[in-house]
Amino acid sequence: MAEGQRWVVVSQEGPENYKIYPFTNETAARAHASRFWCCWVLFELLETGPVERAAGGIGPTFLIHPAIRSHALERLRSSARDADARRAAAAAADARAKAACKRAAPSKPAASANRANGKPDVSNPAVWD
Q1: Do β-strands 49-56 and 18-23 pair in parallel, antiparallel, or remain unpaired?
Q2: pLDDT tens string for the chain (129 positions)?
Q3: What is the pTM of this model?
Q4: What are the start and end residues of every segment in region (Disordered) (predicted)?
Q5: CA nearest 12: which of 78, 73, 57?
């Protein structure tokens, strides 16, 4: 899920055909869900995990809603785990880059061109390549 999308409507639009619709606010999510005839479940995505807030639709809800819930919880939790893993990997890469910068040799001084003839002073071996 993209950043800022805290609400998700999950529907079953045919046998084993689950669709996930992310939203930034509850009003938009509920408005979208109200147009469905198929069974759906509304989740709020919190730091602790997805929390069911509403369910609806026409059909054998005693069969379909539990299937939607298990599919959604599996997908949403794995998305959260993947996002956590990406954040941890990015933080580790940043730490490695900072450590590598600290270990790197200092840059060579630039050859000065303050001489009367305009040519750089190459008497300092540190500026030689």
Answers
A1: unpaired
A2: 556 679 999 999 988 899 999 999 999 999 999 999 999 999 998 887 888 999 998 888 788 889 888 888 888 876 666 777 778 888 888 888 888 888 877 776 665 666 666 666 667 666 665
A3: 0.58
A4: 100-129
A5: 57
- Of the candidates 16, 9, 67, the one whose C-alpha atom is nearest the C-alpha of residue 42 is 9
Query: Which pairs with CB-CB distance under 8 Å and at least 24 residues apart come from 82-90?
Result: 83/1
Burial of 19 (0-12, 13-18, 19+ CB in 10 A): middle
Residue given tokens 């002073």 in the structure block: 121
Task: Measure the CA–CA gap between 52 and 7, rounded to whole angstroms.
Answer: 10
Q: Say which amino acid occupies 117.
A: N
Helix (H, G, I), strand (E, B) or coil at 29: helix
